[in-house]
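note to self: dont lose this again. the chain is below, predicted strucutre after it. 314 aa total, dont forget to put it in the shared folder this time
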Amino acid sequence: MLPSMDSRIYDITRCQYGLIARRQLLDLGLTDRQVDHFLQWGHLIRVHRGVYALPGVPVTWHQRLLAATLALGNGAAVSHRAAAALWRIDGTGRDLVEVSGELLQQTRPGHVITHRSTDLGPAYVTKHLGIPVTRPARTLLDLGAVSSQAIVDRAVDDALARGCVEWDELLDVLNALGRRGRRGTGRLRRSLAERTGVPSTVLEAEFQRLVARHGLPEPMYQYEIRDEHGVFVAKVDAVYLDVRIVIELDGASTRVGRNALLYDITRQNRIVQCGFLPLRYAWRCLVGTPQHTAREILRLREQRARELGVATAA
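---
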């Protein structure tokens, strides 16, 4: 048994799957020499450099995950495939110990897959079951760096279906971290671009982000078009009044069947009769090929300006 002076040691190990780090022991007031004696006497068992377990504590996958984060320190967190498994996201299994951190130590923990990351923080890391882990949206981005497109697609499907992650969270992590060249970005972006049934509010928010990111002139949103007699024709997602261009965003339609198709055709024809050029963009256009979509809108604005003989906004 460890000296009774430090029942606090048991308080810590009770919350850490029987584990304690050397730095935690030193914070309790023990000396390096005392810690070494505990190891020598078998009161503590070395798991990794600077990480110990109480004798007789069962070795579990959860314990191995936490031990790896304690060994790496510096804000390390379970990540990638191990994080997906910890969140119980479909398509992943509990076999790997995979951790991200700044990894400043010369010696890495044995049997642990490590990734260097300098952008972990409260926005992307939390605790789950007492273990530091990347949040689900960040996990799915990282998963794309080490897994196939099929696994990422399956994981995204499951995480969204179970409410483990929201659309806005996935878009935010892509916008914040999905820089060109970052591993995993392409697979997550492709997976989102293939989605159907995207909520209209999410679709509109992503179009607004596209406008801001690519320097497009700001359109008017949710604009009501009326004919020359003031009769209501349609309420459109966005419009450039200066060049008479309407932008419609095609998400999950609640209208099905032949009547729905007739309604859409009639509505679009009436918009054209009012002098507008309608453009339609699906989720794939906004998330999968945003640069192409932005360039197309700019090109058509310039073309319409020449046709109408008007000066466009800068």
